[in-house]
Each structure stands twice: as C-alpha cells, then as structure tokens.
C-alpha cells in the first residue's frame, strides 16, 4: 500500500505538468521552436548566425517588424486586420525625409509630426472601421493603395536623403560604453545583467502575489526553469553584442515597448477589454464595454507604431525611397500568427508576437547566409505561416 501511495504521489505532479504544457502549448511551443530554429541555422551556417556582427544585423533588420508586431497584435486580438502598415511605413519615412532633408527641420519636431501623422492615419482608418462598420480588410486595403500613392507623390518618384546624423542614431547608434572597454563593451553587458536580475525579481514577486491570492497556476519547477533560462539568454545575448559594438539604441526602444505593451495587455483594464472584444464582441458590448471606441483606439495605436517603424527603417537606410515598406504588412501579420495570435481574435501575447517576429527574422537571415534564393525563401515562409495557423485551428477544434 505504501508503494502504491508513492507511485500515485509521483504520478500526480507528472499529470499536472502534462496538463499545464498542453494548456500552454502556444507559449512554450513557440519559444522552443525559436531555440530549435536558431540551433539549426547555427549548425548549418558553421556558427555564422550567432557571431556578434550578424546578431547585431539581425536585430537591426527586424527592429521595425517587432515594433509593428506589437501594434498589430492588439488589432488582431480585437478581431481586425491592418494591411496598410507597410505603406504607412513608406509614407512616414518619405514625410520625415522631406521635412528634415528638403525643409531642414530639426529631427525632434519632425519626429513628433511624423508620429502625429501616423496616429491621424490610424484614427482615419479606425473611424470607418469602428463607427461605420466597414470591414477592416477593405478599409486598410484602400489605405495601402492610398499611402503607397502618396509616398510616390511626396518623393516625386525619387529617393531623398541623407538624414541628419542625429536622426540616424535612432537605428544605427549604440549605447555609449562608460567603462571604455576595447574588446568588450562592458556597459552593455552590465545593462544585460541588471535587466535580467530585475526581470527575475519582478517575476518572483508577481508569483508570490498570485500565490497569496490563490491564483497560482504554473508549476514551480516550470516557473523557475523558464525564468532562469530567460535570464541566462538575456545575459548571453548581451555578452555577444558586447563583443561587437554593444547594445543598439533601437534595441532599447524595442525593449521599452515590449515591457509597456506586456504591462498594458496583462495588467490593465483596457488590455483585458481588448481581449474581451476579440473573444466575443456582443458579450463585451452587453457587459458595458464601448467596443466601437476600443477598436478605434487600437488603430490609432497601430498608426503611431507604424510611423515609429517607418522612421527606424528610414534612419537605417539613411534615405527614403518610393518602394520602402513594400511587403512589410505580410511579415508583421505572419509574426503575430506564428507567435500564437488567433485568426478569429481574442487570443495572443506580446512575447508571442516578438518571438514570431524573430522566427521570421532568423529564417530570413539563416536562409540568406545559406544562399537560398528569395523564391524558395518565400515558399518556406508561406508554409511556416500556414502550419502555425493550422495548429491554432486544430487545437481550437479539438
């Protein structure tokens, strides 16, 4: 009887862990997929993928996709879609170039005007979607055509640049090293260690608060393992980046936005209401949520982030081109869906969207290093997107 009791006691945690993994397949599955993809390309490229220079380029190349994915996540969770973000990126980049290069505006007021224009674009599209009930697919498809044409008109079919050196630092600058390290940017490494420690402290405090209120769900071994692994990854990547030029400025912007949107979606009333809106709009409206206004706000937010991404992209190229932003909307939408957002709305996490963006980025970078043509790259990316949505629909039906 004692032996049977011990077996039963050991089987209970195992059953609990299996159930937890099944219920959180999206979160853990995508993180493990990103690790597996990076390990695969690290081996196939003979270590080139994780070299400090390539890792820095990987961050810079995907920064604007990550920024837009944060906004697109809220739009998708609310049950909508935005096809115009790529054209808005190109239009805002063109506007920034005209203001700073041709009219010689200082980069600060020019940046503020560009962000305001992005918000106005989002508001205009969101108004038709939220209050006139025109499908977001149609409105943003029209917006994609309109702002692509306006970009051509604004630039008169020509590239405009270069940007002021101060503005270029948004995408091409790195945080200064106060310790003046030669082979190792010590400041960047210290920042990574401090951030990892703060995240660990915040996670343990949040879990203690949940336990106190009887809200604990995640098994303790999973919680400890996940957070220690996450902290180790942060320190390791900061160390690799410190071997080149340190942490890019745009990485600091991305990290701040990720923390902000993670807080908004998980800890605020408006975040919970957006999920309620996407889950069941009629029920949300009956419960007193002003669903029209909420949808309107998500598109304003998307417009501002698309404008920020447009300036980051323009600063990285150091010029504004008529074709800037072409196809960006596909990468952004794919990042959200690969990261676990549901096509029917109501489901999705900030870290999932970020992981999805880096899955796409690592695949693009790895396949380019291996010499795979753009034709087959598109095929592989399309199949990965289809597989991600298939898994989501399959799990929901099951």
Structure described in brief:
By secondary structure, the chain is mainly alpha-helical. It has helices at 2-23, 25-44, 52-77, 85-102, 107-131, 136-155, 165-172, 186-212, 220-242, 249-267, 269-279, 281-286, 291-317, 328-338, 350-369, 374-397.
Summed up, the helix count is: 16
What's the alpha carbon Rg, rounded to whole Å?
22 Å
Overall pLDDT score:
87
What can be said about the biggest beta sheet?
none
Keywords:
398 residues, mainly alpha, 16 helices, 77% helix
Describe this structure in words.
The chain has 398 residues and is mostly helical. The protein is 77% helix and 0% strand. The protein is built from 16 helices and no strands. The protein has helices spanning 2-23, 25-44, 52-77, 85-102, 107-131, 136-155, 165-172, 186-212, 220-242, 249-267, 269-279, 281-286, 291-317, 328-338, 350-369, 374-397. Helix 14 (328-338) packs across helix 15 and helix 14 runs parallel beside helix 16 (374-397). The chain is globular, with a radius of gyration of 22 Å. It starts with a helix and ends with a helix. The model has no long low-confidence stretch (mean pLDDT 87).
Topology overview:
Blueprint (H helix, E strand, L loop, with lengths): L1 H22 L1 H20 L7 H26 L7 H18 L4 H25 L4 H20 L9 H8 L13 H27 L7 H23 L6 H19 L1 H11 L1 H6 L4 H27 L10 H11 L11 H20 L4 H24 L1
Helix pairs in contact: 2-15, 3-10, 3-13, 3-14, 3-15, 4-5, 4-6, 4-13, 5-6, 5-13, 7-13, 8-9, 10-11, 14-15, 14-16
């Amino acid at each position: 009887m004692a032996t049977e009791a011990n077996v039963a006691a050991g089987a209970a945690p195992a059953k609990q862990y299996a159930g937890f993994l099944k219920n959180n397949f999206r979160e853990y599955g995508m993180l493990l997929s990103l690790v597996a993809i990076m390990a695969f390309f690290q081996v196939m490229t003979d270590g080139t993928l994780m070299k400090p220079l390539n890792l820095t380029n990987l961050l810079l190349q995907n920064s604007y996709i990550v920024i837009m994915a944060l906004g697109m996540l809220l739009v998708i969770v609310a049950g909508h879609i935005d096809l115009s973000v790529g054209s808005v990126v190109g239009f805002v980049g063109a506007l920034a170039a005209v203001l700073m290069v041709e009219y010689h505006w200082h980069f600060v007021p020019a940046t503020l005007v560009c962000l305001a224009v992005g918000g106005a674009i989002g508001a205009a599209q969101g108004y038709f979607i939220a209050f006139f009930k025109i499908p977001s697919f149609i409105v943003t498809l029209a917006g994609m055509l309109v702002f692509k044409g306006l970009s051509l008109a604004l630039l008169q079919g020509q590239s405009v640049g270069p940007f002021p050196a101060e503005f270029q630092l948004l995408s091409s600058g790195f945080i200064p090293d106060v310790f003046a390290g030669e082979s190792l940017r010590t400041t960047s490494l210290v920042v990574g260690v401090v951030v990892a420690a703060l995240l660990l402290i915040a996670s343990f405090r949040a879990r203690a608060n949940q336990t106190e209120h009887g809200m604990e769900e995640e098994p303790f071994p999973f919680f400890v393992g996940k957070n220690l692994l996450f902290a180790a990854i942060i320190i390791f990547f900061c160390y690799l980046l410190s071997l080149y030029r340190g942490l890019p400025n745009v990485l600091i912007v991305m990290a701040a936005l990720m923390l902000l949107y993670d807080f908004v979606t998980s800890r605020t009333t408006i975040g919970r209401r957006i999920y309620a809106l996407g889950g069941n709009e009629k029920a949300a409206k009956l419960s007193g949520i002003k669903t029209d206004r909420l949808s309107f706000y998500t598109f304003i937010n998307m417009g501002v982030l698309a404008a920020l991404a447009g300036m980051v992209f323009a600063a990285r190229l150091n010029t504004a081109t008529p074709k800037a932003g072409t196809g960006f909307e596909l990468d952004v939408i794919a990042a959200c869906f690969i990261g676990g957002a549901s096509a029917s709305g109501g489901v999705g996490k900030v870290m999932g969207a970020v992981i999805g963006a880096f899955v796409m980025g690592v695949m693009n970078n790895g396949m380019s290093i291996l010499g795979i043509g753009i034709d087959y790259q598109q095929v592989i990316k399309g199949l990965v997107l289809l597989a991600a949505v298939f898994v989501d629909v399959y799990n929901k039906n099951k």
